[in-house]
Amino acid sequence: MFNKKETLHLLISVLILSIVFGWNDGRSTFNAVLWFSNFLKVFLFVSIAIIVHELAHKIVAHKFDATTNYEIIHLKKIWFQGELKKPLPFWAFISVFLTIISKGQLFFTGIGKTIISSEEKRRIGRKFIYLTGYEEALILLSGPLANVFLVLLVQIFSKALGNTTTDFININLILALWYLIPLPGFDGNGIYFGSRWLYIFGLAFIVLAFVLKFLPFFWTIILSIFLAATVTLFFYWKEEK
User: Fold this and answer.
1) CA distances from 124 to 63, 86, 127, 132 (A)
2) Coil, helix or strand for 88?
3) For residue 204, how far is the Cα from the chain centroid?
4) Percent of the chain with pLDDT over 70
5) Which residue spans within 28-82 are E strands per DSSP?
6) Which is it for strands 83-88 and 112-118: parallel, antiparallel or unpaired?
7) pTM of the entire structure?
8) Which pLDDT tens digit goes with each residue over 123-133?
9) How far apart are CA 181 and CA 187, in angstroms?
10) DSSP secondary structure string, 110-166?
């Protein structure tokens, strides 16, 4: 499912994000053993969140006869200067830097991106040989949505799992929202410019699902879809007005 390069990038990303989320273990005094124990827990949560996220991309991409590859975002040039001799994982450095100076209070998780590719021969028989912006937006949006459904499913077993679900929920929420940031190089940029209305619906649905997660699973999904559709129609009405 994941090639060697992709697996390496995923592992590095999980390690970096585990440091980001696990830097502050919530204790007033530092205890190496307890800190490392918390780090291992966070590492497990981040691994699940990232793998589920990327698998969702691949499954939806397959439906459109396309493939996806995950990689850490690298800057090839800074501003208008010439290309760097070696690409720089700038956002990964920023992520760790903000974590250290904020003592684990700031979470910047936009360190990776999903690259979508397709072959013309695989899409023979479809209306469009090339992937449309809407199809790419669906593929990219599937990742954050997978994180939402993962959290809602965990909520069902929250009583049995205890307080550990809080950290798991927060990690998935932050990851899902950061993936929707419409900045160049980020997945959110591809969703926004691929289909603005799908972007609005997806963003509204994710936020609402987390707000309404205290409800039973069925009602959380139904109300989130209904309210997200209402928000999308409102924006469409304002745009067309």
Assistant:
1) 14, 38, 8, 14
2) strand
3) 15
4) 93
5) 66-72, 75-77
6) unpaired
7) 0.87
8) 777 777 788 89
9) 7
10) --EEEEEEE-GGGGTTSS-SSPPHHHHHHHHHHHHHHHHHHHHHHHHTHHHHTTHHH
